[in-house]
Write a structure and sequence with these properties.
Layout (H helix, E strand, L loop, with lengths): L10 E2 L6 E2 L3 H28 L4 H26 L4 H29 L11 H27 L13
Antiparallel strand pairs: 1-2
Helix pairs in contact: 1-2, 1-3, 1-4, 2-3, 3-4
């Protein structure tokens, strides 16, 4: 059974049925997966919006939309490779990544908004790239415990593992 190969991710408590035992390593891997999609979308959105001279709100909205798009797309691609139909794969991606991406985007964009002058930095400014990189690191650090918590309950990224070969 495929799921048995991933038993180290979580185990059921026989008394309560609650999921326990998610490792920090698993949470880090799930968060890195999420960070990859989020970072692609976030950076692309910020670069496009900034290059086109869009305002801060439009640029941020584009970055968030693209972060969700790329985050879901990476999971969707992996689940589809397991031979699952698109509808099921899409539902798995939503279940696996929504909370993780939402937390990551809230933290990432919150840091950028609160960082003095970061929202007004140009593509050629170290502040643009530095604040973006640091905001993604902070988002990763905040999102990892969230992913550990959801995985330990058999939710979030744990949903994807039944589709791994």
């Amino acid at each position: 059974m495929q799921h048995e190969a991933h038993a180290h991710h979580h185990t059921a408590d026989t008394m309560t049925g609650a999921m326990t035992g998610a490792t920090w390593s698993t949470a880090v891997q799930a968060t890195l997966h999420c960070l990859t999609g989020c970072a692609i979308g976030e950076v692309l959105g910020m670069v496009i919006g900034t290059a086109l001279g869009w305002g801060n709100v439009a640029t941020t909205v584009l970055a968030i939309v693209l972060a969700f798009f790329f985050g879901y797309s990476l999971t969707l691609r992996g689940v589809l490779k397991a031979g699952v139909g698109f509808r099921t794969a899409f539902q798995v991606a939503l279940a696996a990544d929504t909370l993780s991406i939402a937390v990551m985007e809230l933290i990432d964009n919150g840091v950028i908004v609160l960082w003095p002058e970061a929202m007004d930095a140009d593509l050629g400014d170290l502040l643009f790239w530095g604040s973006l990189a640091i905001s993604l690191v902070i988002a990763f650090m905040v999102t990892t415990p969230v992913n550990k918590w959801t995985i330990s309950r058999g939710k979030g990224h744990a949903v994807v593992h039944q589709y791994h070969h």
